[in-house]
Amino acid sequence: MHVRVGAMRIFLLWQSVYMVVMTTISVTEDVKQKLLRIASELQIRLGRRVDLNEALRFIIGQKEKKPHLLDEACKPLSGAEEALKELYAERKLDEERLERKVGPRHKRAD
Fold first, then answer.
1. SS3 sequence, the chain?
2. Do 35 and 60 form a contact (C-beta atoms < 8 A)?
3. What burial letters (b/e) apply to 89-109, b meaning 16+ CB within 10 Å?
4. Is the pTM of this model over 0.70?
5. What are phi and psi of 103, to 5 degrees?
6. CA 11 from centroid of its chain's CA atoms
7. d(CA 66, CA 59)
8. Beta-carbon count within 10 A of 8 CB
9. 13's torsion region: left (phi>0), alpha (psi -120 to 50) or beta?
10. Along the 110 residues of the chain, how does pLDDT read in single tens digits?
11. CA angle, residues 61, 46, 15, in degrees to nearest 5
12. Cβ distance 39 to 50 under 8 Å?
């Protein structure tokens, strides 16, 4: 009976390992460096090796725990439209001043 249970555990372990599907993802060098930094911070905090998959799982878990913070950080500020209109108006005035100063022969190419 014990042998059979042990064999069943080995089979289930093999089956669970067999079911793991690995996928390759491409990231830019700066994202890779940030991900490695997060993994190293986790390693220090947990006191054991942490791979990039676990670091990504941690980041996803943080997002799932506090989704409202990301939404809050990404929503536009009040008065943003007025500030943008003012910025465009000031930019237009700057370009007109520059045009008067350097003349039409130095016109900016768009």
1. CHHHHHHHHHHHHHHHHHCCCCCCCCCCHHHHHHHHHHHHHHHHHHCCCCCHHHHHHHHHHHHHHCHHHHHHHHCCCCCHHHHHHHHHHHHHHHHHHHHHHHCHHHCCCC
2. no
3. eeeeeeeeeeeeeeeeeeeee
4. no
5. 85, 175
6. 38
7. 11
8. 10
9. alpha
10. 444 444 555 555 555 555 566 788 888 999 899 999 999 999 999 999 999 999 989 988 887 777 676 677 777 778 888 888 999 999 999 999 988 888 766 555 65
11. 65
12. yes
Residue corresponding to tokens 């980041």:
59
The amino acid that residue 100 corresponds to is R
**In the structure encoding, which two tokens stand for residue 84, read together?**
């943008």
Both tokens of 100, joined, read 């008067």
